[in-house]
Amino acid sequence: MVEADHGVVGEVPAAPPSASVVFGDRLADAERFTALLARHGVERGLIGPREVDRLWDRHVLNSAVVATDMTAGATVVDIGSGAGLPGIPLAIARPDLRITLVEPMARRIEWLSEVVTALGLPISVIRGRAEERTVQEQAGGADVVTARAVAPLAKLAGWALPLLRPGGHLVALKGASASEEVARDRDAVRRLGGGAPSIRQYGEDVLDVPTTVVVVERTSSGTRRDRARKTRKDR
């Protein structure tokens, strides 16, 4: 079980000055989340042992800065949420967002539920995979779907686009592979109902290494499977 108080055993990385810029008056919640990850993340298989010293820049701030272009009150579905990245930092930085975390693994669902309760965050947690009908029924029609280190772009688009409303956006946190994935998977994304992927960077003013994101708009009324299902229904 995670603990809601500030007593944390072991080394917890101090928040850099940039964290105050990103989280503002909710910095204390970001510090508590980072402390919980530092204390429990390695033992629960959420992060590697080398990641503890770089939790802020590489994970927490890296996740939070992508909220810059999200409209007020947007519904956000974070698929393959794992340790809660990027969904929990987004919820802390932008309490106006309506966030749902989707994760298939029971032990990670347990962690996410414990953290949401400990921090008192208004977040929904769903156990399942993005491509499952029950998940689509519960979380579909989102304005934004986020994902971090989940799958290559084409596969990720196949999971994420059906969860979006037309005009909604997949926001995929990527690293150095972004350009290669966009070039390789552009046509596949289009066939799945997405627009041309674009590469954006966030946090250039607060991070030494900005967050690289691939953004894909859902441009069609659905994937080929969605459209076929609708055609059969209308007959």
Automatic annotation (TrEMBL):
<dbReference type="InterPro" id="IPR003682">
    <property type="entry name" value="rRNA_ssu_MeTfrase_G"/>
</dbReference>
<keyword id="KW-0963">Cytoplasm</keyword>
<dbReference type="GO" id="GO:0005829">
    <property type="term" value="C:cytosol"/>
</dbReference>
<dbReference type="InterPro" id="IPR029063">
    <property type="entry name" value="SAM-dependent_MTases_sf"/>
</dbReference>
<keyword id="KW-0489">Methyltransferase</keyword>
<dbReference type="Pfam" id="PF02527">
    <property type="entry name" value="GidB"/>
</dbReference>
<protein>
    <recommendedName>
        <fullName>Ribosomal RNA small subunit methyltransferase G</fullName>
        <ecNumber>2.1.1.-</ecNumber>
    </recommendedName>
</protein>
<comment type="similarity">
    <text>Belongs to the methyltransferase superfamily. RNA methyltransferase RsmG family.</text>
</comment>
<feature type="binding site">
    <location>
        <position position="80"/>
    </location>
    <ligand>
        <name>S-adenosyl-L-methionine</name>
    </ligand>
</feature>
<keyword id="KW-0698">rRNA processing</keyword>
<feature type="binding site">
    <location>
        <begin position="130"/>
        <end position="131"/>
    </location>
    <ligand>
        <name>S-adenosyl-L-methionine</name>
    </ligand>
</feature>
<comment type="function">
    <text>Specifically methylates the N7 position of a guanine in 16S rRNA.</text>
</comment>
<keyword id="KW-0949">S-adenosyl-L-methionine</keyword>
<dbReference type="GO" id="GO:0070043">
    <property type="term" value="F:rRNA (guanine-N7-)-methyltransferase activity"/>
</dbReference>
<feature type="binding site">
    <location>
        <position position="148"/>
    </location>
    <ligand>
        <name>S-adenosyl-L-methionine</name>
    </ligand>
</feature>
<feature type="binding site">
    <location>
        <position position="85"/>
    </location>
    <ligand>
        <name>S-adenosyl-L-methionine</name>
    </ligand>
</feature>
<keyword id="KW-0808">Transferase</keyword>
